[in-house]
From TrEMBL:
This is 3-isopropylmalate dehydrogenase. GO terms for cellular component: cytosol. It holds the Pfam family Iso_dh. NAD(+) binds at G285, S286, A287, P288, D289, I290, A291, G292, Q293, G294, I295, A296, N297. Belongs to the isocitrate and isopropylmalate dehydrogenases family. LeuB type 1 subfamily. The gene is leuB.
């Protein structure tokens, strides 16, 4: 099969890690007789340097015409880079926000997986980690508190700030369906997280999730209050499979969940719209402190590419291949600096990509 992929290398370590992800995708293409056609797109600082703005309309068009977007990361050192002397709407991050909005990417998926081989990096006690955990946070990305009306005013010498949290049932339904669809590809369990004991928006959330759940009889689901969920994530993370939640709760819980895996260089993510289309990128930033040194961990980007195969291209076997190769390589003891442990073999960015390619092709 043939797929068109818009590729945004971005800034900092972005080009280095994206190169490795493409290498791994090419190995999969070779093994399964697919064609991945890449079109490179400038965004962030790289686009500012060439076009004076972080994302051009032409770049958005290339992304819209492709089957999916694979991205490294954007941005520079926020204290020293000249990009940060520009007004906020011209800075690198504005490009990413514009792209997400233009592509209507309302569903943000962040897997939090604790690999057996990296258990030592997890800040939780061994008895809590148990057999490890492998969960997916499904966060609504374009509604709720972050997109509501806001204002700050002063009256009689007293400052008052106001933010509003609004969801309509359609916005909830589309993200809930996404959550249950993903659960069908995993172990068929959804935990919907809200604050229905206090918030009207959460009560509507709960009602709509219950309606959607009726279409997925194979999926077991439960509701959990967000404060309890925050506690359960560090008390018993193994109980979760898919966590489905609104924008702000998802923002906080996904950071909490990802941090208990202990390794920022391993965390993939996907942002999807209501078709198969998605933007796939590592959860970490552009790491300007280590850019150009050949030491960045490319695995989060490579695992994001695996998500692209699974969620945008329906190539589950191929995605499994990449994920299994990552496990095999970690088991064999290869580590980039960020996940290095005593007695393991230290490798650089390119070497990690090469070893994965060999593992996938069985060489
Ligand atoms: P960061 O994630 O780039 O780096 C935090 C720390 O983790 C650094 O020490 C870095 O070296 C390390 N690190 C990150 N990824 C790594 C990898 N793959 N391998 C090894 N080590 C890794 O966060 P930051 O320093 O706060 O931000 C740097 C820039 O990235 C900023 O301009 C920020 O705005 C941007 N940023 C972009 C995105 C994105 O593109 N989606 C996300 C977050 C931050």
């Amino acid at each position: 099969m043939k797929f068109n992929i818009a590729v945004i290398p971005g800034d900092g370590i972005g080009p280095e890690i994206v190169k490795e992800a493409k290498k791994v995708l090419d190995a999969v293409a070779k093994k399964y007789d697919h064609v991945f056609d890449y079109t490179e797109v400038l965004m962030g600082g790289a686009s500012i340097d060439v076009h004076g703005i972080p994302l051009t309309d032409e770049a958005i068009e290339v992304c819209k015409k492709s089957d999916a977007v694979l991205m490294g990361s954007i941005g520079g050192n926020t204290s020293t880079s000249p990009w940060y002397r520009l007004s906020p709407d011209k800075r690198p991050e504005a490009g990413l926000l514009k792209l997400r909005k233009s592509l209507n990417l309302f569903a943000n998926l962040r897997p939090a997986v604790l690999y057996d081989e990296l258990k030592g990096a997890c800040p939780l006690k061994e008895e809590i980690i148990g057999d490890g955990f492998d969960m997916m946070i499904m966060r609504e990305l374009t509604g709720g508190l972050y997109f509501g009306e806001r204002s700050t005013k002063e009256e009689n010498g007293v400052m008052t700030a106001h933010d509003s949290l609004t969801y309509n049932e359609n916005e909830i339904r589309r993200i809930a369906k996404r959550g249950f669809d993903i659960a069908m590809k995993r172990s068929k369990k959804v935990t919907s997280v809200d604050k229905a004991n206090v918030l009207d928006s959460s009560r509507l959330w709960r009602k709509v999730v219950e309606e959607v759940a009726k279409d997925y009889p194979e999926v077991t689901y439960e509701h959990m209050l967000v404060d309890n969920c925050a506690m359960q994530l560090v008390k018993n993370p193994g109980q979760f499979d898919v966590i489905l939640t609104e924008n702000m709760f998802g923002d906080i819980l996904s950071d909490e969940a990802s941090m208990v895996t202990g390794s920022i260089g391993m965390l993939a993510s996907a942002s999807l719209n209501d078709t198969k289309f998605g933007l796939y990128e590592p959860s970490h930033g552009s790491a300007p402190d280590i850019a150009g040194q050949g030491i960045a961990n490319p695995l989060a980007t490579i695992l994001s590419a695996a998500m692209m195969l699974r969620y945008s291209f329906d190539l589950d076997k191929e995605a499994d291949d990449i994920e299994n190769a990552v496990k095999t390589v970690l088991k064999a003891g290869y580590r980039t600096g960020d996940i290095m442990q005593d007695g393991k073999t230290s490798v650089g960015t390119v070497e990690m990509g090469d070893i994965l390619v060999k593992t996938i092709l069985g060489e």
